[in-house]
Design a protein that fits this description.
The chain is an alpha+beta fold. It has 22 helices and 16 strands.
Length: 584
């Protein structure tokens, strides 16, 4: 059964890239014409949540002679396909595999034309999905490269193509290139939605001829930009701020607006023409740049940020804690509505998998709206299949229901041992009360929880209860420390690993986590945006920061020891890395 969505409108109308199925296709054929020639091999790779999750390939008997030059190119001989299945046997599987996924190919029109023609000849339903061409994306993302062939892109990204000119080898290389492009589109173009991605491949490419007028007036600004993280400001002729952005590398990011032909939209072209000055605020880490950008945009409200800047939405699990009988679902937006939010998750698929596991293991109701328990109410199907305790029919007390909610929170936060202990204790109590049927139900649930724990470690947090210390490598021998209280930035310090200011760090930890500090969250959209940025960083950039959980520390001294040990480990790791680089 599909996990219940709290607010499905954002998914239906604005499909996120991370929530989209893509299928990369590569075909080998007897020639170039889809009507006269036939398939000899097909390979399909499914991409979901920025990862390859499934694959399919098959040789196909074309019932047609393979020319010698094609045999030399692909290595597929007439003997190899002699015992291969016919297209009529293969194409039903191909059609099912592709389903409603976006169809991707390098020079996609070639692959799609052969697939469409073959489906038609086999009398199979035609594909009704959009195309996405990695060659077209390459010409817009890498305009400086004269060639956008798969081989040239693979060489550029150091991708080793196994079995070149065979369907699976070329499909794997295309998929790897596509995943590289998704990262660039996310970081440099703020493209997070599938519709935007499909449109991007068709953007008009404009080329600068001669020195544009703005180049002369901005040349000095561009030359002074540093190679470091920070926030940049584009100003108009009056000095007003037109646009604010963040960068991992200020020089590379800002220069890309003016030096490179990267398929800018008309809005960006208008922005660039209106820029009369550039200023910047250098920072130590990209996380600081993200948080500064968010706060500065709210402060200045630049006109072009509302037109150009959008953030990717990550899904969250939502427990409606304000309801007497809380329900659980998922949504994209954090709202100050009294509910408890857990996450974020990488994609809709990940959050639905988590909810499916939770609904199978715990007994919360899955119906919408409020309920008024009555002994005359008839339990629904979910009670019959042991996925709900039927509080509507007074078959489950409010105390037992709240225990289920508490167990779900423990389960989500990775405290599975606590969940198992509670379930075992309840099972033993029911057995002692001679309620053997109830004990058997809990025994089965125990087995289910243990199985899920082996399969996936969720380890997500209630966003409002994230008490974390993020330690991130900065320039030189420094680390930047962000103190996160209740999901928001409470303080930050730049620390030299060679001379750690222990007293200052201890005072900061005590003030933020172990004193009665005032509530940081004021309920505004700005606060929610900051929570989202921090939560998303912890999800997607864990390799760039060490995340320390303060929740388990009983004192400031204990948290200080944890932080001090982490800084020492990072310092030793950096020193070892530098020694290796010198030796190399």
């Amino acid at each position: 059964m599909k996990a219940r969505t709290v607010d499905d409108t954002s998914f239906k109308h604005i499909l996120q890239i991370a929530d989209t199925d893509f299928v990369v296709c590569d075909v080998e054929t007897t020639g170039l014409h889809p009507e006269r020639n036939r398939l000899t091999e097909i390979a399909l790779l499914r991409i979901r949540g920025n990862a390859i999750v499934d694959r399919y390939s098959s040789l196909i008997n074309p019932r047609q002679f393979i020319p010698e030059e094609v045999q030399r190119l692909t290595g597929i001989t007439n003997e190899m396909v002699y015992t291969a299945p016919d297209a009529i046997q293969v194409m039903p599987d191909v059609r099912r595999f592709i389903g409603d996924a976006v169809f991707i190919g390098h020079n996609v029109r070639f692959d799609r034309a052969f697939v469409d023609a073959t489906l038609h000849r086999c009398g199979i339903e035609a594909l009704q999905v959009p195309n996405l061409c990695t060659a077209r994306l390459a010409r817009r993302l890498m305009p400086q490269k004269s060639r956008a062939s798969l081989g040239a892109l693979a060489a550029h990204y150091n991708i080793r193509i196994k079995n070149r000119h065979r369907a699976m080898g070329d499909a794997e290389a295309t998929a790897t290139v596509f995943l590289k492009f998704l990262q660039i589109l996310d970081e440099e173009f703020d493209i997070h939605e599938t519709g935007e991605l499909i449109s991007f491949q068709n953007r008009q490419i404009y080329r600068i001829t001669g020195a544009p007028k703005y180049f002369t007036r901005l040349q000095e600004n561009l030359a002074e930009l540093p190679h470091r993280p920070g926030v940049y400001f584009f100003h108009d002729k009056r000095g007003d701020v037109l646009y604010i952005g963040k960068a991992r590398d200020l020089k590379e990011r800002v220069s890309s607006y003016f030096y490179h032909n990267i398929g800018h939209t008309e809005k960006i072209r208008r922005l660039v023409r209106g820029v009369h000055g550039i200023t910047w605020k250098p920072l130590e880490t990209e996380l600081s740049a993200l948080l500064n950008e968010s706060r500065l945009i709210k402060q200045h409200q630049p006109p072009y940020n509302t037109q150009l800047k959008r953030y990717r939405k990550y899904p969250f699990i939502r427990i409606d804690a304000t309801n007497d009988w809380p329900t659980i679902g998922w949504c994209y937006d954090l709202v100050d509505d009294g509910a408890e939010y857990f996450g974020p998750f990488r994609s809709r698929f990940a959050v639905e998998d988590a909810l499916d596991s939770i609904n199978k293991l715990f007994m919360l109701r899955e119906c919408d709206g409020s309920i008024k328990p009555s002994p005359s109410a008839v339990p629904c199907l979910y009670h019959d299949i042991k996925r709900c305790g039927a509080p509507c029919a007074q078959l489950m007390s409010s105390e037992d229901y709240q225990r289920e909610v508490d167990d779900i929170v423990l389960f989500l936060q990775g405290e599975q041992d606590g969940v198992l202990d509670r379930l075992r204790a309840r099972m033993h109590r029911r057995a002692e009360d001679l309620d053997f049927e109830g004990a058997a139900v809990l025994r089965d649930r125990l087995s289910g929880v243990e199985r899920i724990i082996r399969q996936q470690q969720l380890m997500v947090h209630s966003v409002r209860k994230q008490n974390l210390i993020l330690v991130t490598y900065a320039r030189r021998s420094n680390v930047e420390i962000h103190f996160i209280k209740s999901g928001m930035l409470a303080a930050q310090l730049l620390v030299d690993q060679r001379n750690v200011p222990e007293r200052e760090l201890f005072t900061q930890i005590e003030d933020v986590y172990f004193s009665r500090q005032e509530e940081l969250f004021m309920g505004g959209k700005e606060d929610i945006d900051e929570m989202r940025i921090i939560a998303s960083w912890c999800l997607t950039r864990r390799d760039e920061s060490v995340v320390l959980e303060v929740e388990g520390c009983t004192s400031a001294a204990e948290a200080m020891e944890l932080l001090k040990g982490t800084i020492e480990e990072m310092s030793n790791g950096a020193a070892a890395s530098n020694d290796g680089a010198v030796g190399a």
